[in-house]
Write a structure and sequence with these properties.
The protein has 109 residues and is mainly β. Helix content is 0%, strand content 52%. The chain contains no helices and 11 strands. The strands form 2 sheets. Strands 2, 4, 5, 6, 9, 10 and 11 form a 7-stranded mixed sheet that branches. A 4-stranded antiparallel sheet has the order 1-3-8-7, with no helix packed on it. Strand 5 and strand 6 form a beta hairpin.
Length: 109
Amino acid sequence: VQLQAFGGGSVQPGESLRLSCAASGFALEYYGIGWFRQAPGKEREGISCIRTSGVDYSNSVRGRFTGSRDNAKRTVYLQMNNLQPEDTAVYYCNSQGQWGQGTLVTVSS
């Protein structure tokens, strides 16, 4: 199982980013992928679970973030809209207990 998150960057409040998590070494279509984030000085937080059918969100991102998957491309996505400074964190994807390398999102004016 290998996962690689990418797509982070620096944006201003109210802007959007789309994160991607590329999966390899397993059949993505049979597994869920979790998105997590860890802000400076805080514990890692689960924010979305992209299940094989359906997506769950934490209260902190529901209505602003949208998860999706493209099994043919072996990739899951996290569309993040209306980003706020409190969304600043390193974002990770996880499946079957394996963590991908994180990608940094910085939201600042």
